[in-house]
């Protein structure tokens, strides 16, 4: 009997050891496992919802109603894009031209504020998305950055994208001026594809957190150490296109001390992936969907 019992103990011991070795190997080679273990031992900080151009899945992008709806949906940030008019006023519009989102054609930089403020920036949405069409969207105006700050103040945080800085000279200084005018340094983050523009802003106001937007054409599993070190001289995080990243990328970026805010994540299955991977937040056109995903992942 003693021999049988010793055999059982030996058998159990071997299998426990094998399980430990298996788990150790998975932990060593699987970023997903490492993230989940870290979540259990040290729960993640808040995961942020960034309403991409406002709640732009439901309302015309970069308009006051889109921002109002995003805030009603309890977003953490409203994301918006700024460009300069001909008379150097920061206005909230994504494209370099007004062609796609207004009833006119031409470059933003060629319109004065008076001219651009007369354009209809809402009817296109009703035509393109009839299921979300509203009468109040007809004849919406392109807001100035000043109007957005005046309307929402410190009610919400802002993620502001500097668009095409080569065509918008001095945009960083003008943006900072508006931020300071409304005492919003603690409520604003800036992101851009342009490293040069972010560096210029950092030299003007180092207190505002900056995020480098990147676009990948192919799946990426790792950021080079040299690029990480360069990023950290001016930015606190990186915003990659979601479809080309993965758990390994997120784990490596976060282990390097960078925050990760991928864009643009609109489907709940991808939102679930992003949360599991351990991102710090996502840019989405549907902030209500992501809020629901975060809530479900906390259960």
UniProtKB/TrEMBL annotation:
Classification via Pfam families: GDPD
GO terms of molecular function: phosphoric diester hydrolase activity
Keywords: Membrane, Transmembrane, Transmembrane helix
InterPro entries on file: GP_PDE_dom, PLC-like_Pdiesterase_TIM-brl
GO biological process: lipid metabolic process
GP-PDE domain sequence ranges: 47-294
Transmembrane annotation, as ranges: 9-29
PANTHER family to which the protein is assigned, alphabetical: GLYCEROPHOSPHODIESTER PHOSPHODIESTERASE (PTHR46211:SF7), GLYCEROPHOSPHORYL DIESTER PHOSPHODIESTERASE (PTHR46211)
Protein name: Glycerophosphodiester phosphodiesterase
Native source organism of the sequence: Paenibacillus odorifer
């Amino acid at each position: 009997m003693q021999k049988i019992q010793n055999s059982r103990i030996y058998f159990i011991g071997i299998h426990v050891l094998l399980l430990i070795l298996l788990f150790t190997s998975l932990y060593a080679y699987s970023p997903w496992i490492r993230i989940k273990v870290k979540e259990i031992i040290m729960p993640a900080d808040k995961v942020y919802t960034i309403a991409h151009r406002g709640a732009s899945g439901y309302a015309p992008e970069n308009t006051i109603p889109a921002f109002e709806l995003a805030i009603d949906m309890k977003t953490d940030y409203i994301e918006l894009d700024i460009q300069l008019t001909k008379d150097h006023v920061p206005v909230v519009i994504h494209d370099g031209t007004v062609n796609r989102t207004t009833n006119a054609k031409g470059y933003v930089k060629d319109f004065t504020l008076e001219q651009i403020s007369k354009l209809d920036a809402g009817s296109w949405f009703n035509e393109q998305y009839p299921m979300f069409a509203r009468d109040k969207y007809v004849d919406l105006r392109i807001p100035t950055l000043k109007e957005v700050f005046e309307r929402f103040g410190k009610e919400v945080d802002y993620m502001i994208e500097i668009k095409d800085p080569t065509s918008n000279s001095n945009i960083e200084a003008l943006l900072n001026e508006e931020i300071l005018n409304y005492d919003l340094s603690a409520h604003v983050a800036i992101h851009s594809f342009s490293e040069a523009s972010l560096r210029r802003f950092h030299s003007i106001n180092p207190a505002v957190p900056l995020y480098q937007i990147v676009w990948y054409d192919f799946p990426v599993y790792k950021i080079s150490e040299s690029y990480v070190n360069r990023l950290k001289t001016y930015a606190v995080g990186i915003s990659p296109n979601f479809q080309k990243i993965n758990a390994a990328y997120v784990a490596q970026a976060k282990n390097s001390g960078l925050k990760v805010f991928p864009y643009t994540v609109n489907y709940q299955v991808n939102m679930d992936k992003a949360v599991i991977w351990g991102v710090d937040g996502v840019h989405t056109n549907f902030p209500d969907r992501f809020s629901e995903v975060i809530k479900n992942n906390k259960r």
